[in-house]
Amino acid sequence: MNIDMIEAAADRLRGHARRTPLLSSPFLDEIAGRRVLVKPECLQHTGSFKYRGGYAAISALAPDVRARGVLAYSSGNHAQGVALAARQHGIPAVIIMPEDAPALKIANTRALGAEVVLYDRAGQQTREALGEELKASRGLTLIRPYDEPQVVAGQGTCGLEIAEQAREAGVEQADVLVCCGGGGLTSGIALALEARAPGLRARPVEPEEFDDTARSLVSGRIERNARMSGGLCDAILTPSPGDLTFPVMQRLCGPGLTVSDDEALTAMAQAFLRLKLVAEPGGAVALAAALYRADALEGDAVICTISGGNVDPAVFAQGLKMLEGG
Amino acid sequence: MNIDMIEAAADRLRGHARRTPLLSSPFLDEIAGRRVLVKPECLQHTGSFKYRGGYAAISALAPDVRARGVLAYSSGNHAQGVALAARQHGIPAVIIMPEDAPALKIANTRALGAEVVLYDRAGQQTREALGEELKASRGLTLIRPYDEPQVVAGQGTCGLEIAEQAREAGVEQADVLVCCGGGGLTSGIALALEARAPGLRARPVEPEEFDDTARSLVSGRIERNARMSGGLCDAILTPSPGDLTFPVMQRLCGPGLTVSDDEALTAMAQAFLRLKLVAEPGGAVALAAALYRADALEGDAVICTISGGNVDPAVFAQGLKMLEGG
């Protein structure tokens, strides 16, 4: 994975992915004690950065391979990104989801034209076995959520935009805080910044108790989370950083940061109040770190991603309560 | 007021106002039965289009006049737009607000550097008398919220962007639905479209029971609302269309549309769900018309503004309830 792949992905995404703006608010600057610039990927198609990677991967396939269709395991943002990108290419997408996934997510993925295949988490057949069967019988290509070079290249296009937009905003030196699950967005942005804005340094941000990447960066080897459920930041929970993404993060990223669920919710509420954006809790962890980890940051400006906005209305309402009396 | 003034305002606003994107969602297209393109001015500085007009008016003042400061009557979006624009020019802003205005709005306006002068709605001194006193004693210039040519020119810059962005999106013929209070945004956009995208036609959208502009367009003279309070769309309630804005709307706009408070709330919820945007109810009336007045619209695409996003968290939570079971 390298800058040429990211530039090539950007060419393929032109006219398809949105160039999201770089936003700010004097009120956020005041909380953070420095200038805060926000890259809202919640405004990307399907409500998260995942569309970039999905489109980049599908558009990179050989036409005859692509025509047979693609396959993804996901109950969340990756599913929707792959579904829309597949529809735009006029090819089938099969998404394997647990049968207890939220009804709205299943409905959204179907509405984007994908075929949803449900599996029983407690059943005998694993999702991987089901996927292998579908690949074999229908010739589908698996689009992995992060450990896939073209997906990382697609997410890296977000980093190209940050490099340009930071320069336009007069920011040459800053930490770039990235909401981090498997590290696709973080490593993609890190590669783009290395080549196009070397004064900007990517740093992963994770929820407390799911800080596999932060710990991996400290220990120098891939560490895993003790558990894979619980907490509000489900959109960015993964077992561990990826085999492809971790070495990139190890080479290029600054130390990881963690925030609590309450801090993520409060940052979500601040994005509502000051930026008029809908963030999901997992998508707000980088903003939370920008606002509430001032001592761990360097420089007079900080850039942070909002990685997605696909939040349950009840969870969002819970965040709004954080504003009462505040 | 003409296109040259709007272009000149756009020059002055360059590097200050945000160029807001033009967003869309296949889910909204499906509800509307046509392509829906959304211009989210909730992403503008201070959370509404009002910053454009405030900045345009202040930047057009003669330097010696401007240096003495500006004055506005407002408890809402205009106050914040004028306050920020004044601070960016390094000049004083005095905002006259009723003493029972929401504490958050008073605090926000002060935080943007304005001096807030409170008056008693039930008291002997009208706000106009108070304003005259301040103008005389301190040489302040009044920035009217809509009946002011430079304010209309500033709002018109939103129309220039719509003209360009609609062309890029391949839309040459469409209704452009505009959330309408006094008509500053509607008339500004109408003037810009007349010159730069004559296939696009501006149409005002108002809350039911506050449809002064729609009725004025029918009768051919300025009609007034029976009352000035009640309803959720407070951000766009005005007594009547303006003396300057009405003739422009009469010459250029298509028929007005109205929506109910429930439709505005539901559109606000759809903007949350499908666009990841925070709209205020008054700022969502044009989207509501795009979604729920299909029979009153022409063409296979519709463009609508979201005029602002400064909504009380409790009202927003009320809108989110519209999504339950839906």
UniProtKB/TrEMBL annotation, chains A, B:
Keywords of this entry: Lyase, Pyridoxal phosphate
UniProt superkingdom: Bacteria
GO biological process, one term: D-serine biosynthetic process
Entry's family note: Belongs to the serine/threonine dehydratase family.
GO MF: ATP binding; L-serine ammonia-lyase activity; magnesium ion binding; pyridoxal phosphate binding; serine racemase activity; threonine racemase activity
Signal peptide feature range: none
Cofactor dependency: pyridoxal 5'-phosphate
Cited PANTHER family: SERINE / THREONINE RACEMASE FAMILY MEMBER, SERINE RACEMASE
Tryptophan synthase beta chain-like PALP domain: residues covered: 15-306
Pfam families reported in the protein's UniProt record: PALP (PF00291)
Protein name per UniProt: L-threonine ammonia-lyase
